[in-house]
Amino acid sequence: MRHLVDFLQIAEKLECEYRLTRMSDGAQQAVASHSWSMALMAIVLRPYLKNPIDMERVLKMCLLHDLPEAIAHDVPLHEQNAEVRAQKHQREADAVAQILSVVDNDDMRACLDEYEMRTTPEARLVKALDVLDTGVQHMCAKDLQYIGEYADNFYWRLFFDDKFAKMFDFEPVLRQVFDEIRERVVTRLRTELNIDVEVFRK
């Protein structure tokens, strides 16, 4: 049982790892909270999905996809370039190896590999939920000022422009939810900060 407790001790670190995105109370979002939110979205959206999915597989990937960050840590997207992404990928691969050396679990290994490959409907849905949850956090953030604080309107372009929106078109309900989230962000930027998002689209 020692190895199982060792694994739980590693996994707990995901609750101590924080993302750049802010919650409605102004606190940073924990990575574990992000994973939970994705799983909850999967459950709520399932009746509206047009494509059949293995829900158990989806939930496993939601909960496991960022587990390597318990060791490798998160890197804010605006800090990532090609070199940083390569280093991040290697650190996460090393973290997966470390985790699986503690708890040898073939299904966990397969779930992590499946998410990275993005070749199954389940993995594609989980990736969409991954970025959709970030949109939810932008919508709920106590202060949206940061949306315009990074070079070339980075976070707007990354999470709300029309090119990005197309990634949800494989499941109409995802696109509908995304469009509603974007509209609420647009409204908040206009009413709270007097920002017309058309300036981001130029």
Verbal overview:
With 202 residues, this protein is mainly α. The protein has a single domain (2-199), classed as Hypothetical protein af1432. It is 62% helix and 4% strand. The protein has a two-stranded antiparallel sheet. β1 (18-22) and β2 (28-30) form a beta hairpin. It is globular and about 55 Å long. The termini are far apart.
Arithmetic mean pLDDT: 88
* Strand order within the widest beta sheet: 1-2
- What is the ordering of alpha helices and beta strands? HEEHHHHHHHHH
Weakly predicted, low-confidence segments:
none
Q: Helix coverage percent of residues?
A: 55-70%
How is the quaternary structure best described?
single chain
Rough outline: globular
Judged by helices, strands and strand pairing, the structural class is mainly alpha
Quickly count the helices. Answer: 10
Rg value: 18 Å
Identify the CATH architecture: Orthogonal Bundle
Main β sheet profile: 2 strands, antiparallel
- What is the fold-level CATH name, i.e. the topology? Hypothetical protein af1432
Instruction: State the separation between the terminal residues, measured CA to CA.
Output: 58 Å
The proportion of strand residues reads under 5%
